[in-house]
Amino acid sequence: MTRADLYLPPPEHDELTAYLEPRAPAVDTGRIATRELLPFAQRFAPRPRDGRPNGDLLRLARLIASVASSDLSVAFSLWCHHMVLEYLTVATEGEARRELLPLLLRLERIGSTGLAPAMAHVVSGAALPVNARADESGLVLDGKVPWASNLFSPDFVLVTAAAVDGDARAVVLTSDTEGLDVAPFPELVALQATASSSIRLTGARIRSDEIIATDLHAFVARVRPTFLVLQGSFCWGLARRALDEAGAAIDGTHVLAADVAQLEHRASTVATALEDAAHRADRAIRALVALRLEAACLASDAVALELRALGSRAYVRRSSTARRLREAAFLPIQSPTEAQLRAELATA
């Protein structure tokens, strides 16, 4: 089977690799924040198309896959930022949208997606952890955003959801919103450099123009395909790099050669499916959910195979294989979690 790739073309992919690879160990230990590397990665991002920053979704998917092959933390932060661009692109027109989109595009503000509870609410009816009440100028929010990344002060932009009188809204807040407090950053197995934590909202006031969608179900339906395709892309980038390392460590007669070949086939199938999904306007959500699940499972399987192929030298904590093992451990618990994806597929 001919190998199908989702990377950027070789000159650009190679340039990204040359920049990110030497910095990955410092990112892994938290000595370099992912935010510091986003401007370089963003140089390869697609130009806005038809007024949409993510209009060339295939180009963006390729970029995120290429970044993930060197550093999943940076790819994750890039995904997070571009999802906030997506949310504001499809948001109700308003002053907040007009003000924030240009700042995000110039990386003067960093996007933080806190929509995991909204996705779970729409898919399974789970309760939203943030509640809101109307006041004379907008909404007053109370509750907790259990997980968000790119919480780089003093200029992150957070998109989350809130329950309002039995209904739900998508809202945007900024790092300087009064009543918004970021919890101390926990020590993570990986992705420490992504500034990830929870957020407590206590009487946080937002203006009416910071309510970016009044129909949360319709809003999620519009943004979720992009959400899933780009998540699948960073899973694929991690898997592809692990397979390259495993293949380089063995020859065609090695006992693990058949395992490498089997995962190579899966990787090509996932790459082709992600490319097709990025092209199509009529993306079937069930197929995307299955694809996102397979991409994450592929990454976990590929990194485990890399460890077996490289042997003891891969078990050294500072090796790139050990870093990929820690990165891959994040994928089953990232929202939507493996359990949530499997539950959705079982009931759809």
Q: Considering DSSP H and I runs of 4 or more, what fraction of the residues is helical? A: 40-55%
The first-to-last residue Cα distance is 32 Å
What is the strand content?
Answer: 15-25%
What is the typical, i.e. mean, pLDDT?
96
CA radius of gyration is 20 Å
* Main sheet record: 8 strands, mixed
Looking at the structure, what is the overall shape?
Answer: globular
> Given the structure, what is the number of helices?
12
User: Which structural class best describes the helix and strand composition?
Assistant: alpha+beta
How many β-strand stretches? 8
The low-confidence parts are none
Q: Element order, helices and strands?
A: HHHHHHEHEEEEEEEHHHHH
Describe the protein.
The structure is a single chain. This protein has twelve helices and eight strands. It has 348 residues and is α+β, with helices and mostly antiparallel strands. Strands 1, 2, 3, 4, 5, 6, 7 and 8 form an eight-stranded mixed β-sheet that branches. Strand 4 and strand 5 form a beta hairpin. Helix 4 packs across helix 8, helix 9 runs antiparallel to helix 10 and helix 10 runs antiparallel to helix 11. It is globular. The model has no long low-confidence stretch (mean pLDDT 96).
